[in-house]
Amino acid sequence: MNTVEDIIQLISRRDNISYIEAMNMVNECMEEMEEAVAQGYWQEAEDILASYLGLEPDYLDILMTEMFKMNFFFLLIYWIIGAFLGVKLGTWMADKF
User: Fold this and answer.
1) What per-residue confidence (pLDDT) applies to 40?
2) Distance separating alpha carbons of residues 5 and 87, to the nearest angstrom
3) Model-level pTM?
4) 3-state secondary structure of 97
5) Conformational region of residue 16, where left means phi above 0, alpha means psi within -120 to 50, and beta covers everything else
6) Alpha-carbon distance 5 to 1, whole Å?
7) CA 26 – CA 7 distance, rounded (Å)
8) CA-to-CA distance for 34 and 53, rounded, in angstroms?
9) pLDDT at 96
10) What is the pLDDT at residue 22?
11) Of 40, 47, 77, 95, whose CB neighbour count within 10 A is largest?
12) What is the 3-state secondary structure (H, E, C) of 13-77?
């Protein structure tokens, strides 16, 4: 089991629920874990994993890695958009003043 996709499929089979329901459960869990980690409560992330998904801490690394990738991607996009808008705004201001 190496990916979030694998975890979603495991939960779907284990709990006899749809793929979408399992995906929503995993997303909710990841959001709660991200909030706990952002506040410095690393241990709480394990508790959230067990509570939301009934999984052992072995799966924590997979979800945390996915959270890091998602955050990195959004920060990169934010930086690119900010850099683009900054150049455009600077050019506009230079033309106006």
Assistant:
1) 86
2) 39
3) 0.69
4) coil
5) left
6) 9
7) 8
8) 15
9) 53
10) 96
11) 47
12) HHHCCCHHHHHHHHHHHHHHHHHHHHCCCHHHHHHHHHHHHCCCHHHHHHHHHHHHHHHHHHHHH
